[in-house]
Amino acid sequence: MYKSFIRPILFKFDPEEVHYFTFSILKKFPFLAKIFLPKPIEDKRLEREVFGLKFKNPVGLAAGFDKDAKMFNELSDLGFGFVEIGTLTPKAQEGNPKKRLFRLKDNSAIINRMGFNNGGVDAAVERLKKNKNVLIGGNIGKNKITPNEEAVNDYIICLEKLFPVVDYFVVNVSSPNTPNLRELQDKEPLTKLLGTLQQLNLTKKNPKPILLKIAPDLSDSQLLDIIDIIKETQIAGVIATNTTLSRENLSSENKEETGGLSGKPLTKRSTEVIRFLSEKSGKAFPIIGVGGIHSAEDALEKLEAGASLVQLYTGFIYEGPELIREINKKILEKGL
C-alpha cells in the first residue's frame, strides 16, 4: 500500500513540506495508520536489553525525523521499538535557509542541510511529559551561534532539562550542517565534552546511558580514537553512523547539493564502521547501527557486524512502515 499508492503521492511534493503535512494528518487522524498500514509485530522474543534498558524490539527511529518530539507516540504505534527525538538545542533556531532537503530518487537517498532546526529543548520537554510509555532517546547538540569553546555548556543545558523525560542521551557532534561542529570529534575536545557530561550524569540518582553519534567519514585512526575515548569516559556506547559528505557513485539530479547524504549509498560504509568498532574494541560497548537500511537484509548485516540495535530514517521514508515489520519478522525467523 505505501510503496504502490502512498509514496508516489507524497513524492510529488517538496520533501520538507510533505513531512510536516504527514505529521499533521497522523496527529489529527491516527486511525488512518491502522486502516492503511500493516499491523506491527509484537513478540516477546524481539525484546532486547541494552545499556540496562529494555527495548520492545530492536528497530528504532533515528533522530532527525521527530526533531521536536511532536509525534513520538504516533510513530511508536507504527511498530518502532524506540524513538530518538532531536537534535535539540538549548535555544530555538530556524536552521539553514530553505530549500534544504532533497530526494535523490535514483539512488534511494536524501541530502539534508537542515542545520539543527528545532523549537528548543524547553518546548520538547513539555511534550515529552505526555509520553505514553515510549522508550525515548534524546539527541542533543549546540546552537549555531555558540562557539565550539563554549559548546559543552549547550550540551549540559540539554542534558539537565531532558534528564527527567528521556531514557538515554545521544551526543551529536557529527552533523555536517552546523559550521565547525565536526571539529568536536577530535580526540581532545571530544574527550573533554563526553567526560564532562558523564561526570554530571553520574551525580544523578539514576544515571542514564550516554551515547556518541559518529560520522561515517572518520578514518581508521580516528575510529580507534573513538574506542579510546569511550573507554576513558565510560559512556555507554556509539551510534554508527550519521550522514556522509561523500558523493561517490551518485546519479541523481540533486547529487551536487551540499549537506549530509543518507540512504542506500551509506549502507556499506556504515556497516564497515560498525564492524570495525565491534572487532577492534572486542565488543566492549553496544552499538546502534544506522545508515542505509532499506531492507531486512540490510538490518541483519548490521546486527551481524556487531550492532545491538538498529535505527531507520531514509529507509523508512522510501520503504514505509512495512520495513519495520519485515526486519522484525526476519529477526524472528533467524532466531537473532
| Low-confidence residue ranges | none
Number of domains: 1
Q: Report the strand count.
A: 13
Beginning-to-end CA distance, first to last residue: 28 Å
What fold name goes in the CATH topology slot? TIM Barrel
Spatial extent as radius of gyration: 18 Å
Largest sheet: 8 strands, parallel, barrel
How much helical structure, as a percent, in the residues? 25-40%
Q: Roughly what is the average pLDDT, rounded to an integer? A: 94
Which structural category fits the helices and strands?
alpha/beta
* Strand numbers in spatial order across the main sheet: 3-4-7-8-9-10-12-13
The CATH class, by name, is: Alpha Beta
Q: What would CATH call the homologous superfamily?
A: Aldolase class I
Number of helices: 12
Strand content: 15-25%
What order do the SSEs take from the amino end to the carboxyl end, as H and E?
Answer: HHHEEEHEEEHEHEHEHEEHEHEHH
The CATH architecture name reads: Alpha-Beta Barrel
Subunit structure: Monomer.
Cofactor: FMN
Enzyme class: oxidoreductase
GO cellular component, one term: plasma membrane
Structure characteristics:
336 residues; alpha/beta; 8-stranded parallel β-barrel; 3-stranded antiparallel β-sheet
Q: Could you describe the 3D structure shown?
A:
- Belongs to the dihydroorotate dehydrogenase family. Type 2 subfamily.
- Catalyzes the conversion of dihydroorotate to orotate with quinone as electron acceptor.
- The protein has 336 residues and is of the alpha/beta class.
- It has one domain: Alpha-Beta Barrel (TIM Barrel).
- 38% of the residues lie in helices and 16% in strands.
- The chain has helices at residues 2-10, 15-28, 31-36, 72-76, 121-128, 151-162, 187-201, 220-233, 267-281, 296-305, 314-319, 322-334, and strands spanning 48-50, 53-55, 59-61, 82-88, 101-104, 109-112, 136-140, 168-172, 210-214, 237-240, 260-263, 287-290, 309-312.
- The strands form three sheets. The protein has an eight-stranded parallel β-barrel with strand order 3-4-7-8-9-10-12-13, surrounded by five helices.
- A hairpin with a 2-residue loop joins strand 1 (48-50) and strand 2.
- Helix 7 packs parallel to helix 8.
- The longest helix has 15 residues, at 187-201.
- The chain is globular and about 50 Å long.
- The mean pLDDT is 94.
